[in-house]
Structure formats: structure tokens, C-alpha cells
């Protein structure tokens, strides 16, 4: 078996508020990502997706704090490294990040090429400006962006162009893992399509070796990713292949999440649109027992008292619930 | 380049309009002051002359010499014509010394005092502001109240504080003048040394004020910028913090440049008054004398000079803006 590109074991991080309260935003998350694979992380807003993205990079600054767990990038454990070492040897060239608000991610008073120079010089101070320009121009052209963009400021680019520029800049050092946090949520459908195409190209051409794609748009995940994890209140509640997760979710939360979206393809969902009642719990004081219990239709006193264990079935399906797969399926079919 | 030309063209038109308005106001306002300065000079000259017709003769002679017996608009045009030649007429209070001569003596004192003080204060203030925003904690908690204190006292207030502490209490700096009273201006070591020792107190009174004002503004701008998305993105692309602080400085500085233009503009109200406190031989002291003596040729000439300085500085800053903020350039292409 080959070493996974990214392996995370029991990662927990927290936010510390101004009043010294702890908010446990990522709680004991484990995942594994093979070369050539793309992983989707889904969940509603406030469930810890973006925090997970930030936590995965092993580079923490307040209010986010590391608590425990290992992050292993291509066989190398980075969670014990000094922050400056992580910055120099991991960020940008091993793990790259595309922020949620790529529209504002570029410095307004800097030309794109100058930012690329800074990024490359942070890892490889010896590379000349000429070499950087050639590398960047070639990469931009390959990804269908004009090399003229390099000489521009971000204000001169349209929203979709900014987004694609950020993606191209993030992957300029051919990272092993690309973490994209809602890269398409602010875009119109055409631009979304171009962005998705760009991710495929990056993967096909080997500019990135694996990808984590975070979004609340499940149909998008189905199109882009191989595996999907559903996150709730800082924990992974269910994982499986993209197909299984979209067509056959088991956990009541994933089920609710799938039910609450409009999928235009016929046969996927003939039921009427339903939403999950309520909002995610306050993670300053996570509820004891199952975190979803307060919103779960199937919750019993038992659920509210003791934490459910992760259960497995099929080839590689995991879910966190007290009920068995058969019990859950029966409940779902009663809808 | 086309965008730049349009931008500069617009700015130059505004510069000319403001200039004309400033010249007009400069001419009219001092002449609306109460009191008849010619009568004062006449009284001085005619001391001991008792014959009324002789006094009247002297008065009329002065009136025609200063041109105040002509209608206002005629005075204005001859004023403009002469001003273009650098001739601002004769001073009333130091008659018969020409105004241009008085200004020529004073202006370099002011320029050499004010501009370095404002610019150095601006740089130090902004640098400390961005550091306070970046380091926070104790550095910020100690410096912020000091900045606030400095920025809220006027320059002359600071001048008096420094004067009392260093000039009177510790006696380590001279309390007034631009150089020792026992010297005449020359290029000797003694004279230059004296100028430098007299320079300190007025200089620091202005520098401290501008450090305070700039640091307070820069700190809050930098805190805002430090939370911007590009900072987070740059961090996660592995760029070191020193470079990111550079980005933040560059972006937070933009509104501060407007602040620089404004501080040159408010120089008259604040910093020039500190010249008076130290009896510094600059324009501030000259203006003060001109006001108290109703010397309006001198007054309108000095205010005109200051107006021109402020206009040139703000025009220069507009031009600099176009080069350092790409958004302004981009807006011009629309």
C-alpha cells in the first residue's frame, strides 16, 4: 500500500475567545487521502468545515489553537514542527490553500507576479525573477489564463478571473495537497464550471496530487470528489464514496442534508424539499451524548446521554450513530 | 498612460480653480480688518507736526504710495500684476522694508523646520502605528495612550510643555529665537551650532504631535488590514510575517497619505503657532506680527505663500496617489 498524501489522526483544535472561553471547533477528526484522490467535506454553515481546513495546515495563529492529533503529509508528521518550519517547508509547496473569499484574497496594491515572487521566494529564495516569470507564465497559459494577468493588479480582474488566478497562484509550487475552502460559492454557474474544470486539469496534469474540497453544495461535491465526509458540530458524522453519500446517506444528519437540497437530475429526489430544523449547537459547551440529538427525529434519551460510537459497513462506510445501519434504513424508508 | 493624463488634467484644473479662489480671499480678507494702518504710519511720521493740512498731506502721500485710495478692483489687479513679479509692495509695520524681503528672510526658517518635522513625524508615527497593531499586547497598551495624549494637544501646547521642561527646568535648550542673539547669520561653525541647538525644541514639538496623530490613525487602519483576507491567504501561502507587515503597511498607509496632506494644511493653525512660542524667525512669527500691526500687504503675502505651499503639497500627493494605489489608476480607465 502506498503512503497516503495526507493522513490525519485524531486532530482537535479550538478557538479561544476574548473571554478565554474555549470553542471546540474541530474534535477528533481523522481522515486519509490517497494520491490522485479528491475528498469532499460537506456540512451546514457553522459546523467546523472552514476551521478544519485551517487546522489541516498545521500552522496556527490566534484565536485558533492546536490541541492534539497528528497531521502526516506524504509520510512526514508535521504537527510536531516549529511554526516557522511549517511555514517554510509545508505551506504553499506541500499543502496549498484556497481561501473562502478568494475575491479578496489578493493584495489590492500588488501585481500578481510580485505576489507569486514572494510566495516562491518564501520557499526557494534563490530562484531568479526571470525564472519565476517563465514558470508562472507557462502555468497560467496551461490553465487557460493569459500571461498578461501576471502584470495586473487584482482590481483589474473580474470575479471569476480573480478566483482562477488565486487557484493558479495557490498551486504554483505543485503542492501535494490542495485545500479548497468553498472555492466556488461566490461565483455564477459559468464561472463555477470553469473553476471545476480547472481543478480537474490541475489533477490530470499532476500540478496537485490530491485535493480536499470544502463546500455546502452537495451536487458540486458529487461532480468533483471521490469521497465525501459529512461534518457536524466539529465531528465527522459520516463518510463514504461520493455516489454512496449522495444517493444513499445513512446518518440522519447526512440524510437531512441531502433532503434539503434541490437536485435537478430526475430520480435523485422525488420527495418534497425538507430542511433540518434548528441550528448547530454552541461548541463552547458541546452537548453530552450525540451532538445531533437535539435536532434528530430519531433521538432517544439514550442518544442524549452517551456518545455514539463510529460504526462501519460496506467497503469503507463509516457513520457515527447509536442505531444500526438496518435500523436507520428502516426509519428512512418510513418517510 | 491615457488614464494618467486624464487624472492629472483633472487635478490641474482643480489646482487652478483653488488657486484663484485662494488669491482672491487672500487679497480681500485682510482688507476687511478693522483699523486704518495708514493712519498709524501717518501718526508715527507726523509726530510733532501740528498743522492739520500737513498731516493730511502726509496721509494722502502714504495712501497713494500704498495704492489704497484707488478702488478695490484696481488694487486687486495691480496686486496680481506685481505679485507675479514677486513684488508684494511695502510693509506697513516695517516701512519702508519690502514685503518680499521680509518673507525671503523668514520662509527658509519655516520650510526647514516644518517640512522635515512633519515628514519625519509622519514616518515614525506610521511605523509605530503599524507595529502597535501587529505586536498588540503591552507595546500597544503602553504606546496607545501616549499617542492619544500627543495627538490631542495642539502644537503650541506641546511647545510650551517642552519649553518649560527642557528650556526652563533643565536649561538644556535655548528658549527662543532661531539662533543666539549675539550672532549674525553666517556660515561659521558657531552660528550653525547655535541654529541646531535652537532647532530642537520647535522641531520636536511638531514631530511629537504628528507622531501621535499619525500613529493613532495608522494603528486602527492596520488592525483593519491585518484582518483582511489577503493577509490570511498570504500567511497560508507560507509568506513570512515581516513581508506581510510590509503589505499591511502599504495598504494602511493610503489613507494616511491624505492625512499627510491635511497636516500640511493645518500647519498654519498648529505648527506655525509653535514658532511664535519660540519666537522662531519663521513665517509664523511674521504672520503674528502682521496681524497685530494690521500689516495687510505682509499678511496677504504670507498667507498666499502658505496657500501655495499647501496647494503644491496636496497636488503632489494626488500625483503620488495615482502611482501607489492601482485602484485610482483603474478608476480612470472607466
Describe this protein's structure:
- The complex is a heterodimer of chains A (335) and B (334).
- In chain A, α3 packs across α4 and α5 packs parallel to α6.
- Chain A has eleven helices and twelve strands.
- An eight-stranded mixed beta sheet of chain A has the order 6-7-8-3-9-10-12-11, with helices on both faces. Chain A has a four-stranded antiparallel beta sheet with strand order 2-1-4-5, covered by helices on one side.
- Chain A is an alpha/beta fold.
- In chain A, a hairpin with a 3-residue loop joins β11 and β12.
- Helix content of chain A is 31%, strand content 22%.
- With 334 residues, chain B is mainly alpha-helical.
- Chain B has two domains: 274 residues, MetI-like fold, CATH 1.10.3720.10; 51 residues, no CATH class.
- In chain B, 78% of the residues lie in helices and 0% in strands.
- In chain B, α5 runs parallel beside α13.
- Chain B is globular.
- The model of chain B has no long low-confidence stretch (mean pLDDT 82).
- Chains A and B meet through α3 and α5 of A and α9, α10 and α14 of B.
* Overall helicity of chain B: over 70%
Q: For the CA atoms, what is the radius of gyration of chain B?
A: 25 Å
Biggest sheet record of chain B: none
Mean pLDDT reading of chain A: 83
Number of helices of chain B: 14
**Architecture per CATH nomenclature, i.e. the level-2 architecture of the largest domain in chain B:** Orthogonal Bundle
Low-confidence stretches of chain B: none
Rg for CA atoms of chain A: 21 Å
The CATH class label of the largest domain in chain B is Mainly Alpha
Superfamily (CATH H level) name of the largest domain in chain B: MetI-like
Which structural class matches the secondary elements of chain B? mainly alpha
Count of helical stretches of chain A: 11
Q: Report the biggest beta sheet of chain A as strand number plus sense, adding barrel if it closes.
A: 8 strands, mixed
- Report strand order across the widest sheet of chain A: 6-7-8-3-9-10-12-11
From the spread of the alpha carbons, the general shape of chain A counts as globular
Amino acid at each position: 500500500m502506498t503512503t497516503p498524501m495526507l493522513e490525519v489522526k485524531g486532530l482537535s483544535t479550538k478557538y479561544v475567545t476574548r473571554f478565554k472561553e474555549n470553542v471546540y471547533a474541530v474534535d477528533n477528526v481523522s481522515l486519509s487521502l490517497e494520491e490522485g484522490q479528491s475528498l469532499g467535506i460537506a456540512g451546514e454553515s457553522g459546523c467546523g468545515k472552514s476551521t478544519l481546513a485551517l487546522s489541516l495546515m498545521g500552522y496556527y495563529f490566534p484565536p485558533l489553537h492546536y490541541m492534539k492529533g497528528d497531521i502526516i503529509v506524504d509520510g512526514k508528521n508535521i504537527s510536531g514542527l516549529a511554526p516557522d518550519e511549517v511555514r517554510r517547508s509545508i505551506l504553499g509547496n506541500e499543502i496549498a490553500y484556497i481561501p473562502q473569499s478568494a475575491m479578496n484574497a489578493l493584495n489590492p496594491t500588488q501585481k500578481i507576479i510580485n505576489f507569486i515572487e514572494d510566495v516562491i521566494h518564501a520557499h526557494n529564495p534563490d530562484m531568479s525573477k526571470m525564472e519565476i516569470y517563465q514558470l508562472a507564465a507557462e502555468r497560467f497559459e496551461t490553465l487557460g489564463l493569459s500571461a498578461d494577468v501576471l502584470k495586473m493588479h487584482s482590481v483589474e480582474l473580474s470575479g471569476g478571473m480573480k478566483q482562477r488566478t488565486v487557484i493558479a497562484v495557490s498551486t504554483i509550487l505543485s503542492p501535494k495537497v490542495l485545500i479548497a475552502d468553498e472555492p466556488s460559492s461566490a461565483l455564477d454557474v459559468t464561472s463555477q464550471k470553469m473553476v471545476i474544470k480547472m481543478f480537474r486539469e490541475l489533477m490530470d496534469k499532476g500540478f496537485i496530487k490530491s485535493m480536499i474540497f470544502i463546500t455546502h453544495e452537495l451536487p458540486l461535491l458529487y461532480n468533483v470528489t471521490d469521497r465525501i465526509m459529512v461534518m457536524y458540530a466539529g465531528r465527522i458524522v459520516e463518510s463514504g464514496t461520493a455516489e454512496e453519500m449522495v444517493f444513499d446517506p445513512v446518518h440522519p444528519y447526512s440524510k437531512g442534508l441531502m433532503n434539503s437540497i434541490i437536485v435537478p437530475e430526475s430520480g435523485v429526489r422525488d420527495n418534497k424539499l425538507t430542511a433540518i430544523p434548528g441550528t448547530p449547537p454552541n461548541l463552547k459547551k458541546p452537548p453530552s451524548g450525540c451532538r445531533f440529538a437535539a435536532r434528530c427525529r430519531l433521538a432517544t434519551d439514550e442518544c442524549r446521554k452517551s456518545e455514539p460510537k463510529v460504526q462501519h459497513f460496506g467497503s469503507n462506510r463509516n457513520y457515527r450513530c447509536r442505531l444500526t445501519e438496518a435500523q436507520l434504513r428502516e426509519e428512512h424508508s418510513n418517510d | 498612460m491615457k488614464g494618467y493624463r486624464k487624472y492629472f488634467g483633472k487635478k490641474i484644473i482643480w489646482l487652478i480653480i483653488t488657486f484663484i479662489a485662494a488669491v482672491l480671499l487672500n487679497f480681500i480678507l485682510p482688507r476687511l480688518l478693522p483699523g486704518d494702518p495708514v493712519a498709524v504710519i501717518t501718526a508715527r511720521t507726523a509726530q510733532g507736526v501740528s498743522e492739520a493740512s500737513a498731516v493730511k498731506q502726509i496721509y494722502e502721500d502714504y495712501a497713494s504710495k500704498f495704492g489704497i485710495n484707488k478702488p478695490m478692483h484696481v488694487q486687486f489687479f495691480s496686486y496680481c500684476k506685481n505679485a507675479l513679479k514677486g513684488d508684494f509692495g511695502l510693509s506697513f509695520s516695517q516701512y519702508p522694508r519690502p514685503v518680499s524681503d521680509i518673507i525671503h528672510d523668514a520662509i527658509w526658517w519655516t520650510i526647514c523646520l516644518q517640512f522635515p518635522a512633519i515628514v519625519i513625524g509622519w514616518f515614525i508615527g506610521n511605523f509605530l502605528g503599524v507595529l502597535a497593531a501587529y505586536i498588540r499586547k503591552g507595546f500597544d497598551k503602553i504606546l496607545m495612550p501616549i499617542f492619544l495624549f500627543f495627538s490631542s494637544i495642539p502644537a503650541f501646547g506641546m511647545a510650551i510643555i517642552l519649553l518649560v521642561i527642557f528650556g526652563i527646568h533643565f536649561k538644556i535648550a535655548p528658549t527662543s529665537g532661531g539662533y543666539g542673539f549675539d550672532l549674525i547669520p553666517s556660515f561659521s561653525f558657531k552660528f550653525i551650532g547655535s541654529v541646531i541647538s535652537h532647532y530642537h525644541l520647535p522641531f520636536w514639538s511638531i514631530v511629537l504631535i504628528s507622531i501621535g496623530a499619525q500613529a493613532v490613525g495608522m494603528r486602527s487602519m492596520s488592525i483593519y488590514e491585518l484582518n483582511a483576507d489577503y493577509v490570511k491567504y498570504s500567511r497560508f501561502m507560507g509568506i513570512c510575517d515581516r513581508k506581510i507587515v510590509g503589505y499591511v503597511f502599504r495598504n494602511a498607509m493610503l489613507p494616511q497619505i491624505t492625512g499627510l496632506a491635511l497636516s500640511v494644511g493645518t500647519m498654519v493653525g498648529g505648527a506655525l503657532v509653535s514658532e511664535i512660542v519660540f519666537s522662531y524667525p519663521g513665517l509664523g512669527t511674521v504672520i503674528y506680527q502682521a496681524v497685530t500691526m494690521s500689516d495687510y500687504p505682509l499678511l496677504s503675502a504670507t498667507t498666499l505663500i502658505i496657500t501655495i505651499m499647501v496647494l503644491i503639497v496636496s497636488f503632489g500627493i494626488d500625483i503620488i496617489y495615482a502611482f501607489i494605489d492601482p485602484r485610482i489608476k483603474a478608476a480612470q480607465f472607466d
